[in-house]
Design a protein that fits this description.
269 residues, 8 strands, binds glutamic acid
């Protein structure tokens, strides 16, 4: 199948944000999926070698920290989440750094809070740092600063939301959200085997939002509602968004080649 004009255009974007969620980075028992993270780093390094500039927004700090501290599940209390994320964030960065260095790339840690987006001065500081890192060929790796962001004024509701704001202030042309679901379906594919995957969306309709958040569960465990919200923010900034499966990180190469992977949200018709 030939790429649609909107798909073909994805390869033109030089700068992109890739967001990857905890379930794509870990095994069900909470330990790191090293094969996948290594593959992700390999793909990121390859994209840099092609001349792309990719900012990674990663979750996983709380999950990885909780597992490492011997907790049975993610802590529910704020102080427990703060402690787990402080442990897990260091572990995550160590792994990213190690794998990226195998491919001669450095990783840089950027931890953000909501006011880094809302406050002009802070946003510009973050923007300048990210741009400088990209100019130096370093891979910026972003997460929410879970240690200090504990109220709704400072906290990003989720990393999907964070990734859309990072795409906006970094002036990226593309946001890719990698998750444990192939994209946006018209119904929950887990309960509706015949659910249809949307390949290209120009407008997020109330029906899509209702399907994403309906019947007590989102479309897939990744939480489609927050992903649609992120796509909406991106669309407002004229940024293309692809929601796709993070099972095989080489999907990023196919997305940049214009292949019909996941769901593309685009202003281009
Ligand atoms: N910042 C959280 C973590 O690293 C993730 C938040 C999210 O997944 O939306 O664990």
């Amino acid at each position: 199948m030939n790429a649609t004009p909107a798909r073909a255009q994805l390869g033109q974007h030089k700068r992109a944000v890739v967001k990857i969620g905890t379930t794509s980075l870990t095994y069900p028992n909470g330990t790191l999926n090293l094969q996948r993270i290594e593959k992700l780093c390999w793909v990121l390094a390859d994209l840099y070698n092609q001349g792309k500039e990719i900012i990674l927004v990663t979750s996983g700090a709380i999950g990885v920290g909780a597992n490492s501290l011997g907790m049975e599940q993610r802590p529910r209390d704020i102080i427990g989440r703060q402690a787990a994320s402080a442990v897990g964030q260091a572990m995550l960065m160590q792994i990213y750094q190690r794998f990226l260095q195998t491919y001669n790339r450095n990783a840089a840690q950027i931890l953000l809070t909501r006011d880094c987006v809302d406050n002009k001065q802070r946003r510009e500081n973050a923007q300048n740092t990210v741009k400088q890192l990209l100019a130096m060929g370093v891979v910026p790796i972003v997460n929410a600063n879970d240690t200090i962001a504990t109220d709704e004024l400072t906290e990003f509701s989720d990393n999907d939301n964070l990734s859309a704001h990072v795409a906006a202030f970094s002036e990226s042309g593309l946001l890719v959200i990698l998750s444990d679901i192939e994209g946006l379906y018209n119904k929950d594919p887990k309960t509706h085997p015949k659910a249809i995957l949307f390949h290209e969306v120009n407008e997020i309709t109330p029906a899509m939002e209702a399907a994403a958040g309906g019947s007590g569960s989102s479309l897939g465990t990744g939480g489609m509602t927050t992903k649609l919200d992120a796509a909406k923010i991106a669309l407002q900034h004229n940024i293309d968004t692809v929601i796709a499966s993070g099972e095989d990180p080489t999907i990023l190469l196919r997305i940049f080649s214009g292949e019909n992977e996941g769901t593309l949200f685009t202003c281009m018709t």
